[in-house]
Amino acid sequence: MSAHRSGFVALLGVANAGKSTLLNQYVGAKAAIVTPKPQTTRHRILGIRTEPGRQFVFVDTPGIHAPRTKMGEHMVQKAWSAAKDADVVVILQDVLRPLAGAQEALLKQARETLRALPRIHALNKIDAIRKHELLPRLDETQRLDPEAKAFVPISALKGENLDRLLDAIAEHLPEQPALYPEDWWTDQSQEQLAAEYVREKVFMQLREEVPFQTAVVVERFEPVEDGSIEIDATILVAKRSHKPIVLGKAGARIKAIGIAARRELEALFGRHVRLNLWVKVSPKWFEREGVLRELGI
Q1: Domains along the chain?
Q2: What is the pTM of this model?
Q3: I need a labelling partner for 32 at 20 to 30 A (CA). Which of 79, 217, 266, 279 fits?
């Protein structure tokens, strides 16, 4: 009988490489919010998958980028810190973008910084390219990191080759008991999940620079006698001019944000949710250490 394996698996990559989509596929639930906009993930997020004989504790990390704010610096630091603390590192790349610039720089830095750790390269979004286009990309990835343990083409969105990637990861997990109870799928609190679900809908509703200068704080999360949950949440914006944009004409946009978030929260918690949203101006909150600590960034 083979020994039980479990451990932490860091998902590392540039923005929009597909890390959060992959995490959610493996967990079977939305542990990490997903939007088309870069830098959606801001903190370390755990997603836990338990199978007979093995448990994977996936760590979704912020996308590696060149930071321009204090928040960006914190995000990149957290990503590398999570990777260094992991048992296995999965480096995701978007094959629809050239293996140059930020993606190539990430591979080179990971090879040097994470030299002592098992590294597995996941070439994502293969559902959108032809097979003959993939082979040169595989060759180039192997050239850049020849000591990596595996190179696995996948589609996180379509679920293609995810079992193969999982098996490659499992080979390098430590032999040890499960780290979390088998019915856990994340370590996030209900308040943290509520804040993230609201922030996802803010991102989806807003364009250009406004989403990146918003954050969500849950002020109150309280079960009510009738079995429902009442949630008070504040959407932080960095400029006074952003507040009317978030509110929308006659409050239409914040109402749409609330409706979309409430539907998903009700599905998540399995009960009626009363979600109350406010917008607060907090100038340059993304440069202020105290606010970043409060937000867990």
Answers
A1: 5-170 (3.40.50.300), 190-295 (3.30.300.20)
A2: 0.91
A3: 279
